[in-house]
Design brief:
Chains A, B: This is GntR family transcriptional regulator. The structure is a homodimer. Chain A is α+β, with helices and mostly antiparallel strands. In chain A, α1 crosses α3. The two termini of chain A are about 35 Å apart. Chain A binds a DNA duplex through α3.
DNA sequence: GAGTGGTCTAGACCACGGG
DNA sequence: CCGTGGTCTAGACCACTCA
């Protein structure tokens, strides 16, 4: 008896490091500032570089830091709020300024999308690639899947090039009456193509927003949008597209 | 000349590993099955354990695997869709079956919440802790912040114990006419208390849903709900709370 | 070419769960 | 107790950016 053994929970080093760094970021650094490099930080805290990196990874995941190979680690600006699923009854691309059509093809969608579209697994559909930027930074890459039935007049006006074709598909889509939409958000990791468009490395954490558009009692289109999880806060609600809040918002510690 | 140098992109080992494992999961394993332990897997693939772990981490992030210390690595079931922000005009706790009141206190909210509430930084508010489970598994932990003005009759009926007090606050809230709500989703990492409630380690990836409830042209309450990012898919839309889809949904490879 | 973050190794020990 | 995943180390080399 006597060995009361308080504090039986030895906090992992990287967790403690993260806390210390987080407080230092709040008090001693300003947005955009470059931190000392990893080798020096590790030495300064008396830990192995791998351990320090574990702490940095967490802070990057939380949107506090931004790391770039060959450049360094900088203090990230607060996450930007991006409106998602506003304009409940507007088709994508209707007078859109935030999304830029990039390309368009005809191909067989991945199985999960085919299921959501309720078409057969091997049915060809139109695809439209779009990218979204805010404040000059890429924040999202989207792939929109449109079954041929949803744009019956398209083949007649077959346009050759990528972006123009994309716009044509979006234009045809406006002819349908949109009845509703359903969205889901989940965590994913960036595929190689998305990563490139988002200016991140493959495997970077992303928020995947899957939306089903309903028209004529059918699923008229499916969109899979990939948002940078480190820089974005997705906003929903009755705001009509207005961003909820701006400023130094931080989660409770 | 002659050294045409195709494939100048040496794919990282862990990335390739992830792909190989992912395909193996699809074809050779079924949900709940236990994988060989990390040391054996690493040996089998001829890589260091740390490298293998990097691949496993990614797969866990994508909800394909579940790892538990002292137990092993198992194949995760498909993510469960949880409805968020349905019933646009219902207060939290109105005949709720998915959320369980846990506790309630009076305290000063964190700065970010105080800002969202538009109360002063040091104003005391009621807090209500709730937890959400699906299929017997904990999926979310919520902290609801309610300024005293929103529940003016509460002090008179001061109830002592935690869960009962939580229910009392929620009941008082129903008296207000809810005008709308705004939600935002972002990636975070679980704090120690949330992690415990979610049966995860601290730092585990979570989807943080911040909701502002409006009544009487004011922000009447703010909710910060923390969902397990590995097991959850958050659904929004005109579904009235019905889950969007069930089944073997997988993102495009 | 110098300096950064990204990948990888081969070890060690620890915390936890279950028999 | 044993086996599991979680943490940590001290190195090495690679890929990228920029002057």
């Amino acid at each position: 008896m006597g060995t009361t053994q308080l504090e039986t929970v030895p906090e992992p080093k990287y967790w403690h490091l993260k806390t210390v760094l987080s407080e230092a970021l709040d008090s001693e650094f300003s947005v955009g500032e470059i931190l000392p490099n990893e080798r020096e930080l590790a030495a300064r805290f008396g830990v192995a570089r791998a351990t320090l990196r574990q702490a940095l990874e967490q802070l990057e995941l939380e949107g506090r830091l931004q790391r770039r190979r060959g450049v360094g680690t900088t203090v990230a600006p607060p996450r930007v709020g991006v409106a998602v699923g506003a304009e409940q009854h507007a088709w994508p691309g209707a007078g859109d300024t935030v999304w830029q059509p990039v390309d368009s093809t005809v191909e067989a969608p991945p199985a999960a999308v085919a299921d959501a579209l309720e078409t057969g697994r091997n049915t060809l559909v139109h695809t439209v690639r779009r990218s979204r930027t805010t404040h000059g930074q890429p924040v999202a890459a989207e792939l929109l899947y449109v079954p041929g039935q949803s744009v019956p007049d398209l083949p007649a006006i077959e346009t050759p090039t990528g972006a123009a074709r994309a716009r044509a598909v979006l234009r045809e889509l406006q002819h349908l009456e949109l009845e509703g939409r359903e969205s889901a958000v989940e965590l994913g990791s960036a595929r190689a193509d998305d990563a490139k468009e988002l200016d991140r490395l493959p495997g970077a954490p992303v928020l995947v927003v899957t939306t089903r558009f309903f028209a004529g009692r059918r699923v008229a289109a499916v969109s899979v949008a990939t948002y940078r999880a480190d820089t974005c806060r997705l906003t929903f609600g009755d705001t009509g597209g207005v961003e909820i809040h701006e400023g130094p918002e931080r989660r409770a510690s």
